[in-house]
Amino acid sequence: MSLIWNNKISVSYFGEAHDSVVGVTISGIPEGEYISSEEIVKFLSRLSPKSLGMAEKLPTPRIMSGLMNERTTGAPLCAILQNTKSQAVSAEKPENMRYGHGDYTGAVCCRGYCDAEKKSRSAERFAVPLCFAGAVCGQILERRGIYTGGHIARIHNVKDNPFDTVRLSRDAVLSVRFKDFPVINDRVGWNMLENIAMARESGESLGGIVECASVNVPSGVGSPVFDGLANCISQLLFTLPDITGVEFGDGFSAAEMPGSQYADVSYITEQGYSMTKTNSHGGMINGISSGMPITLKAAFKPPKIGSADCCTIPRAVVYTESAVNIALLTAMLDYPNFC
User: Fold this and answer.
1) What pLDDT does residue 288 have?
2) Where along the chain do its domains lie?
3) Matching CATH number, 4-332, of 3.40.50.2000, 3.40.109.40, 3.90.1800.10, 3.60.150.10
4) Residue 316, Cβ neighbours under 10 Å: how many?
5) Residue 299 and residue 154: Cα distance in Å, rounded?
6) Which of 40, 93, 122, 208 sees the fewest Cβ atoms within 10 Å?
7) Closest CA to 163 of 244, 86, 249
8) Residue ranges of the chain whose pLDDT lies below 70
Protein backbone atom coordinates (compact mmCIF):
# COMPACT_ATOMS: atom_id res chain seq x y z
CA MET A 1 0.00 0.00 0.00
CA SER A 2 1.62 3.25 -1.12
CA LEU A 3 1.30 6.23 1.22
CA ILE A 4 3.37 8.60 -0.92
CA TRP A 5 2.19 10.97 -3.64
CA ASN A 6 5.39 12.04 -5.34
CA ASN A 7 5.45 15.15 -7.50
CA LYS A 8 7.07 18.58 -7.26
CA ILE A 9 5.12 18.74 -4.02
CA SER A 10 5.33 15.33 -2.33
CA VAL A 11 2.79 14.24 0.26
CA SER A 12 3.48 11.18 2.38
CA TYR A 13 1.50 9.69 5.27
CA PHE A 14 2.73 7.62 8.17
CA GLY A 15 0.93 5.40 10.63
CA GLU A 16 -1.98 3.02 10.04
CA ALA A 17 -5.68 3.71 9.88
CA HIS A 18 -6.27 2.93 13.56
CA ASP A 19 -2.90 3.85 15.09
CA SER A 20 -2.94 6.29 18.00
CA VAL A 21 -1.45 8.92 15.70
CA VAL A 22 -1.23 9.44 11.98
CA GLY A 23 0.85 12.04 10.27
CA VAL A 24 1.83 13.74 7.06
CA THR A 25 5.07 15.04 5.58
CA ILE A 26 4.99 17.62 2.78
CA SER A 27 8.16 18.05 0.75
CA GLY A 28 8.91 20.65 -1.92
CA ILE A 29 7.27 23.63 -0.21
CA PRO A 30 9.35 26.75 -1.02
CA GLU A 31 11.18 28.36 1.89
CA GLY A 32 9.99 31.63 3.41
CA GLU A 33 6.26 31.03 2.93
CA TYR A 34 4.09 32.38 5.75
CA ILE A 35 1.86 29.65 7.18
CA SER A 36 -0.73 30.46 9.85
CA SER A 37 -1.33 27.59 12.26
CA GLU A 38 -4.62 29.22 13.29
CA GLU A 39 -5.83 29.18 9.69
CA ILE A 40 -4.93 25.49 9.39
CA VAL A 41 -6.99 24.69 12.49
CA LYS A 42 -9.87 26.78 11.13
CA PHE A 43 -9.72 24.93 7.83
CA LEU A 44 -9.71 21.51 9.53
CA SER A 45 -12.59 22.49 11.84
CA ARG A 46 -14.88 22.34 8.82
CA LEU A 47 -14.55 18.56 8.91
CA SER A 48 -16.87 18.45 11.94
CA PRO A 49 -19.91 20.65 11.13
CA LYS A 50 -22.12 21.35 14.14
CA SER A 51 -25.29 21.12 12.03
CA LEU A 52 -24.73 17.38 11.59
CA GLY A 53 -23.19 16.61 14.97
CA MET A 54 -20.36 14.77 13.23
CA ALA A 55 -19.15 11.94 15.44
CA GLU A 56 -15.40 12.46 15.19
CA LYS A 57 -13.84 15.53 16.81
CA LEU A 58 -10.54 16.42 15.23
CA PRO A 59 -7.50 17.39 17.34
CA THR A 60 -5.13 20.27 16.67
CA PRO A 61 -2.27 19.09 14.44
CA ARG A 62 1.21 19.27 15.95
CA ILE A 63 3.80 20.60 13.51
CA MET A 64 7.11 18.84 14.09
CA SER A 65 9.40 20.33 11.46
CA GLY A 66 9.63 22.61 8.45
CA LEU A 67 8.16 25.70 10.10
CA MET A 68 9.95 28.35 12.18
CA ASN A 69 8.28 31.57 13.32
CA GLU A 70 5.38 30.69 10.98
CA ARG A 71 7.69 30.66 7.96
CA THR A 72 8.59 27.56 5.98
CA THR A 73 12.25 26.62 6.21
CA GLY A 74 12.52 24.61 3.01
CA ALA A 75 12.79 21.38 5.01
CA PRO A 76 9.92 18.86 4.78
CA LEU A 77 6.89 20.12 6.73
CA CYS A 78 5.83 17.34 9.09
CA ALA A 79 2.74 17.21 11.30
CA ILE A 80 1.15 14.56 13.49
CA LEU A 81 -2.51 14.21 14.40
CA GLN A 82 -4.02 12.12 17.16
CA ASN A 83 -6.34 9.42 15.92
CA THR A 84 -9.32 7.63 17.39
CA LYS A 85 -9.16 3.85 17.71
CA SER A 86 -11.94 1.35 17.18
CA GLN A 87 -12.27 -2.38 17.51
CA ALA A 88 -10.42 -4.09 14.67
CA VAL A 89 -11.86 -6.93 12.66
CA SER A 90 -9.53 -9.88 12.21
CA ALA A 91 -8.66 -10.72 8.63
CA GLU A 92 -8.28 -14.33 9.72
CA LYS A 93 -12.03 -14.73 10.36
CA PRO A 94 -13.88 -14.54 7.04
CA GLU A 95 -17.23 -14.74 8.81
CA ASN A 96 -16.48 -11.36 10.43
CA MET A 97 -15.67 -9.60 7.17
CA ARG A 98 -18.13 -6.91 6.12
CA TYR A 99 -18.50 -7.56 2.41
CA GLY A 100 -18.94 -4.31 0.53
CA HIS A 101 -16.83 -2.48 3.13
CA GLY A 102 -13.42 -3.24 1.67
CA ASP A 103 -12.59 -5.83 4.33
CA TYR A 104 -12.54 -8.68 1.83
CA THR A 105 -10.59 -6.88 -0.90
CA GLY A 106 -8.08 -5.55 1.64
CA ALA A 107 -7.51 -8.99 3.11
CA VAL A 108 -7.02 -10.55 -0.33
CA CYS A 109 -4.67 -7.74 -1.42
CA CYS A 110 -2.37 -8.35 1.57
CA ARG A 111 -2.85 -12.14 1.55
CA GLY A 112 -4.31 -12.07 5.02
CA TYR A 113 -1.30 -10.39 6.64
CA CYS A 114 -3.13 -7.19 7.53
CA ASP A 115 -6.03 -6.16 9.69
CA ALA A 116 -8.94 -6.10 7.24
CA GLU A 117 -10.79 -3.22 8.88
CA LYS A 118 -7.67 -1.08 9.11
CA LYS A 119 -7.14 -1.66 5.41
CA SER A 120 -10.70 -0.69 4.52
CA ARG A 121 -10.58 2.50 6.62
CA SER A 122 -7.24 3.78 5.27
CA ALA A 123 -8.71 6.29 2.80
CA GLU A 124 -11.06 7.66 5.43
CA ARG A 125 -8.40 8.06 8.12
CA PHE A 126 -5.76 9.55 5.84
CA ALA A 127 -8.18 12.14 4.45
CA VAL A 128 -7.43 14.33 7.50
CA PRO A 129 -3.66 14.50 6.84
CA LEU A 130 -4.53 15.28 3.21
CA CYS A 131 -6.64 18.20 4.44
CA PHE A 132 -3.70 19.46 6.51
CA ALA A 133 -1.56 19.46 3.35
CA GLY A 134 -4.38 21.12 1.42
CA ALA A 135 -4.70 23.86 4.04
CA VAL A 136 -0.96 24.62 3.79
CA CYS A 137 -1.00 24.68 -0.02
CA GLY A 138 -4.17 26.79 -0.02
CA GLN A 139 -2.53 29.52 2.07
CA ILE A 140 0.40 29.73 -0.34
CA LEU A 141 -1.92 29.96 -3.35
CA GLU A 142 -4.19 32.57 -1.78
CA ARG A 143 -1.28 34.93 -1.22
CA ARG A 144 -0.91 34.82 -5.02
CA GLY A 145 -4.63 35.58 -5.45
CA ILE A 146 -5.70 32.00 -6.31
CA TYR A 147 -8.74 30.79 -4.35
CA THR A 148 -10.37 27.37 -4.28
CA GLY A 149 -13.77 26.65 -2.79
CA GLY A 150 -16.53 24.07 -2.95
CA HIS A 151 -20.10 23.49 -1.95
CA ILE A 152 -22.55 20.62 -1.65
CA ALA A 153 -24.04 20.45 -5.13
CA ARG A 154 -26.34 17.54 -4.29
CA ILE A 155 -27.30 15.15 -1.52
CA HIS A 156 -29.48 12.27 -2.67
CA ASN A 157 -32.09 13.99 -4.88
CA VAL A 158 -31.83 17.53 -3.44
CA LYS A 159 -29.75 19.96 -5.51
CA ASP A 160 -28.08 23.24 -4.58
CA ASN A 161 -27.67 26.19 -6.94
CA PRO A 162 -24.59 25.74 -9.16
CA PHE A 163 -21.58 28.03 -9.36
CA ASP A 164 -21.53 30.55 -12.20
CA THR A 165 -18.61 28.88 -13.96
CA VAL A 166 -17.99 31.82 -16.31
CA ARG A 167 -18.16 34.84 -13.98
CA LEU A 168 -17.14 33.13 -10.76
CA SER A 169 -15.42 35.52 -8.35
CA ARG A 170 -13.24 35.22 -5.27
CA ASP A 171 -16.11 36.49 -3.11
CA ALA A 172 -18.49 33.87 -4.49
CA VAL A 173 -16.01 31.14 -3.59
CA LEU A 174 -15.34 32.46 -0.09
CA SER A 175 -19.01 33.14 0.72
CA VAL A 176 -19.66 29.41 1.13
CA ARG A 177 -16.38 28.32 2.72
CA PHE A 178 -17.10 28.87 6.39
CA LYS A 179 -20.81 28.16 6.44
CA ASP A 180 -21.47 25.34 8.89
CA PHE A 181 -23.41 23.60 6.11
CA PRO A 182 -21.67 24.61 2.86
CA VAL A 183 -24.42 25.33 0.34
CA ILE A 184 -25.15 28.39 -1.80
CA ASN A 185 -28.92 28.28 -1.22
CA ASP A 186 -29.58 27.97 2.52
CA ARG A 187 -33.21 26.94 1.99
CA VAL A 188 -32.01 23.99 -0.08
CA GLY A 189 -29.55 23.24 2.69
CA TRP A 190 -32.40 22.90 5.20
CA ASN A 191 -34.04 20.35 2.90
CA MET A 192 -30.77 18.43 2.69
CA LEU A 193 -30.49 18.40 6.48
CA GLU A 194 -34.04 17.06 6.78
CA ASN A 195 -33.20 14.25 4.36
CA ILE A 196 -30.07 13.41 6.34
CA ALA A 197 -32.05 13.35 9.59
CA MET A 198 -34.63 10.99 8.08
CA ALA A 199 -31.88 8.73 6.72
CA ARG A 200 -30.24 8.58 10.14
CA GLU A 201 -33.52 7.68 11.86
CA SER A 202 -34.23 4.89 9.38
CA GLY A 203 -30.70 3.46 9.45
CA GLU A 204 -29.96 4.59 5.88
CA SER A 205 -27.03 6.51 4.41
CA LEU A 206 -26.83 9.12 1.65
CA GLY A 207 -24.25 10.11 -0.95
CA GLY A 208 -23.96 13.22 -3.04
CA ILE A 209 -21.95 15.50 -5.30
CA VAL A 210 -19.44 18.24 -4.48
CA GLU A 211 -18.85 21.12 -6.88
CA CYS A 212 -15.44 22.75 -6.57
CA ALA A 213 -13.87 25.69 -8.38
CA SER A 214 -10.61 27.63 -8.44
CA VAL A 215 -10.49 31.28 -9.53
CA ASN A 216 -7.67 33.49 -10.80
CA VAL A 217 -5.56 30.56 -12.03
CA PRO A 218 -3.52 32.05 -14.90
CA SER A 219 -3.44 30.47 -18.31
CA GLY A 220 -0.56 28.15 -19.16
CA VAL A 221 -0.41 26.14 -15.93
CA GLY A 222 0.04 22.41 -16.42
CA SER A 223 1.30 20.17 -19.19
CA PRO A 224 -0.16 17.89 -21.86
CA VAL A 225 -0.28 14.09 -21.71
CA PHE A 226 0.88 12.50 -18.42
CA ASP A 227 1.46 15.69 -16.41
CA GLY A 228 -1.83 17.36 -17.24
CA LEU A 229 -3.45 19.53 -14.57
CA ALA A 230 -6.66 17.47 -14.66
CA ASN A 231 -4.59 14.28 -14.37
CA CYS A 232 -2.91 15.59 -11.23
CA ILE A 233 -6.17 16.71 -9.64
CA SER A 234 -7.87 13.41 -10.47
CA GLN A 235 -5.10 11.31 -8.98
CA LEU A 236 -5.42 13.11 -5.65
CA LEU A 237 -9.22 13.08 -5.73
CA PHE A 238 -9.30 9.31 -6.11
CA THR A 239 -7.45 8.89 -2.82
CA LEU A 240 -10.56 10.24 -1.06
CA PRO A 241 -12.99 7.98 0.80
CA ASP A 242 -16.19 6.94 -1.02
CA ILE A 243 -15.42 8.84 -4.24
CA THR A 244 -16.91 7.25 -7.36
CA GLY A 245 -16.45 9.75 -10.18
CA VAL A 246 -15.08 13.12 -11.31
CA GLU A 247 -15.99 15.41 -14.19
CA PHE A 248 -14.43 18.68 -15.31
CA GLY A 249 -16.49 21.46 -16.85
CA ASP A 250 -19.50 20.01 -18.64
CA GLY A 251 -18.04 16.55 -18.13
CA PHE A 252 -20.34 13.72 -19.15
CA SER A 253 -22.92 16.19 -20.47
CA ALA A 254 -20.47 17.03 -23.24
CA ALA A 255 -21.08 13.61 -24.74
CA GLU A 256 -24.67 14.67 -25.49
CA MET A 257 -23.71 17.99 -27.13
CA PRO A 258 -22.88 18.76 -30.75
CA GLY A 259 -19.50 20.36 -31.25
CA SER A 260 -21.00 23.78 -31.95
CA GLN A 261 -22.68 23.78 -28.54
CA TYR A 262 -19.65 22.53 -26.61
CA ALA A 263 -17.11 24.86 -28.23
CA ASP A 264 -16.20 27.86 -26.05
CA VAL A 265 -15.96 31.04 -28.13
CA SER A 266 -12.96 33.20 -27.22
CA TYR A 267 -12.73 36.97 -26.92
CA ILE A 268 -10.15 39.51 -25.75
CA THR A 269 -10.92 41.58 -22.65
CA GLU A 270 -10.18 45.28 -22.32
CA GLN A 271 -7.12 44.32 -20.28
CA GLY A 272 -5.85 42.18 -23.15
CA TYR A 273 -6.64 38.74 -21.68
CA SER A 274 -8.06 35.91 -23.76
CA MET A 275 -11.28 34.59 -22.16
CA THR A 276 -14.24 32.50 -23.30
CA LYS A 277 -17.94 33.33 -23.27
CA THR A 278 -18.78 29.90 -21.86
CA ASN A 279 -16.73 27.41 -19.85
CA SER A 280 -17.62 23.94 -21.06
CA HIS A 281 -13.94 22.99 -20.87
CA GLY A 282 -13.82 23.65 -17.12
CA GLY A 283 -10.82 25.96 -17.30
CA MET A 284 -8.45 23.34 -18.75
CA ILE A 285 -7.65 22.39 -22.33
CA ASN A 286 -5.17 19.61 -23.16
CA GLY A 287 -4.07 19.47 -19.52
CA ILE A 288 -3.26 23.20 -19.36
CA SER A 289 -5.21 25.99 -17.68
CA SER A 290 -6.99 28.45 -19.96
CA GLY A 291 -7.41 31.37 -17.54
CA MET A 292 -11.09 30.60 -16.95
CA PRO A 293 -12.26 29.27 -13.56
CA ILE A 294 -11.26 25.64 -13.05
CA THR A 295 -14.47 23.76 -12.28
CA LEU A 296 -15.21 20.16 -11.38
CA LYS A 297 -17.77 17.92 -9.75
CA ALA A 298 -16.91 14.89 -7.62
CA ALA A 299 -19.46 12.19 -6.82
CA PHE A 300 -19.37 10.30 -3.50
CA LYS A 301 -21.28 7.13 -2.72
CA PRO A 302 -23.29 6.67 0.49
CA PRO A 303 -21.20 5.68 3.52
CA LYS A 304 -21.35 2.11 4.71
CA ILE A 305 -24.57 1.23 6.52
CA GLY A 306 -23.88 1.35 10.23
CA SER A 307 -21.17 4.02 9.97
CA ALA A 308 -21.09 6.72 12.64
CA ASP A 309 -22.07 9.34 10.06
CA CYS A 310 -24.85 8.56 7.59
CA CYS A 311 -23.75 11.33 5.20
CA THR A 312 -20.19 12.61 4.84
CA ILE A 313 -20.69 15.05 1.94
CA PRO A 314 -19.97 18.16 4.10
CA ARG A 315 -16.57 16.64 4.86
CA ALA A 316 -16.13 15.72 1.20
CA VAL A 317 -16.26 19.44 0.34
CA VAL A 318 -13.13 19.99 2.45
CA TYR A 319 -11.49 16.83 1.06
CA THR A 320 -12.07 18.01 -2.51
CA GLU A 321 -10.77 21.52 -1.92
CA SER A 322 -7.64 20.08 -0.32
CA ALA A 323 -6.87 17.78 -3.24
CA VAL A 324 -7.29 20.64 -5.71
CA ASN A 325 -5.06 22.96 -3.65
CA ILE A 326 -2.22 20.42 -3.59
CA ALA A 327 -2.47 19.74 -7.32
CA LEU A 328 -2.60 23.44 -8.20
CA LEU A 329 0.43 24.36 -6.10
CA THR A 330 2.38 21.48 -7.61
CA ALA A 331 1.60 22.72 -11.10
CA MET A 332 2.16 26.39 -10.21
CA LEU A 333 5.74 25.82 -9.03
CA ASP A 334 6.79 25.72 -12.70
CA TYR A 335 4.90 28.92 -13.52
CA PRO A 336 7.16 31.93 -14.23
CA ASN A 337 7.73 34.22 -11.25
CA PHE A 338 5.50 32.18 -8.94
CA CYS A 339 8.11 31.77 -6.19
Assistant:
1) 96
2) 4-332
3) 3.60.150.10
4) 26
5) 9
6) 93
7) 249
8) 1, 17-18, 53-59, 83-104, 106, 111-123
